[in-house]
Write a structure and sequence with these properties.
Blueprint lengths: L6 H4 L8 E5 L2 E5 H17 L7 E5 L4 H11 L3 E4 L6 H11 L3 E5 L6 H8 L3 E4 L27 E7 L7 E6 H15 L6 E4 L6 H14 L2 E4 L5 H11 L3 E4 L1 H11 L3 H6 L4 E4 L6 H11 L3 E7 L4 E5 L14 E2 L3 E5 L11 E6 L11 H7 E2 L2 E10 L5 E6 L4 E3 L2 E3 L1 H8 L5 E11 L3 E10 L7 H9 L10 E4 L16 H4 L6
Length: 503
Amino acid sequence: MQMAKTVLSLLQGAPAGATALTAPGRRPLTFDGLRGLVTKTHRQLAARGIGPGDRVAIVLPNGPEMASAFLAVASGVSAAPLNPGYKEAEYEFYLSDLKPKLVLVESGSHNPVRSVADRLGIPVAELAVAEDDPAGAFTLWADEAEPTPPSETDEALVLHTSGTTSRPKVVPLSQANLNASANNIVATLKLTPDDHCLNVMPLFHIHGLIAVVLSSAAAGASVCCTPGFNALKFFHWAADEKPSWYSAVPTMHQAILQRAERNADLVAALKLRFVRSSSASLPPPVFMALRETFGCPVIEAYGMTEATHQMASNPLPPGEQKPGFVGMAAGPEIRIRAADHWAATGEEGEVCIRGANVTSGYENNPQANATGFIEGWFRTGDQGFLDDGGYLKITGRIKEIINRGGEKISPLEVDDVLLEHPAVQQCVTFGIPHKILGEEVGVAIVLAEGQALTSGELQSFAEAKLAHFKVPKKILFLPEIPKGATGKVQRIGLAKTLGLGDA
């Protein structure tokens, strides 16, 4: 009988003694240990009435417990990872929207999610980690019961994605979606049990969760779970762990390159099979510098939450890696939609995808689902074209989302917070071109009559309610907001209208 296409099935193939997770200063967790942890977690959740499709929010810092908690939860119920850096107001929104049955935090945590969960009547569980536990091992509680295994259509992961509306959209991803995406990445990167990835990506994003953690587990490969990206520690971690690859966003690659010259001996000792980049466009000069520095292929890929990450990827040798292109279809099918027809080779239009890794639709959002699909194809909102070799070039974003170094920010979410300030009458948040980050957050402000406000005061106000990366770095106080011919504010192009070049 064919095994179900679930997350749990991906974890079954590796030999018992093979290493699954490592962490700096910790002893490794084997696949036998990981499978035991997964089984135990499913039984413990079942004892509290949490089963397939039920959501468990995970609010943990980067590290092995975050990785193992994701695998344990997503393989039995539905994982809802949240940024541990969120403020109370943000947790209030996300927990109210997701309605999880449980929130997981680290032992002794004082994260504001605890007080929000308490107000909303959501139980909170601390991960108990013994002093001598291997990397990623934990216990929730002693109670256990017989769990029900999830089906392919049950939800495995749920994330919010920023949108052009003030309310971020909920993206439910099924067991089959995650299974398909992980297998796509394993095939693209030719991952084997000999591979070891140094993870520097945050594990509340689709990139780190799927491209690194789940794909490695599916291949029987291992992951070193660092506390998060740190350019100062990267080469020392790499020297200790001897990874065969790492995946990062372009800004991280740039920071690593800046440190490479000072760590020439450590760079020379590295034996990377490839370097991967995704979540934002990789500038060709950075591509060339990475290839020259590490002496290995640089694989740029294209992903998004609704596709359970990977859509396109440059191939490994002997295939060609094209700087400035996000590669060929790597799992789902890709077509380009021009104004009223499917585009020919070289013709620019909206990038559309279809495949087993693509979400079936947003939750409780019929309008977004009606506009987000065309003839069964998901519309990415990105603009681009396919060349003669089938390589995809992204030429711009149709949506107004700000992409700050891979962090996606909804302008209207920022607007809503800034408009709460009594001195602000009107505001429009928009992206400003940035040489390193791709885009930075800017805002145009019209003050209420008779009010005075400084940029620093408004930034301090925003810091109390928004994660740091969402706080505008450039604030312009204007007598009125520029509008288009129809009277609508046009966020796209506003930076140019206001004479703002690279930040």
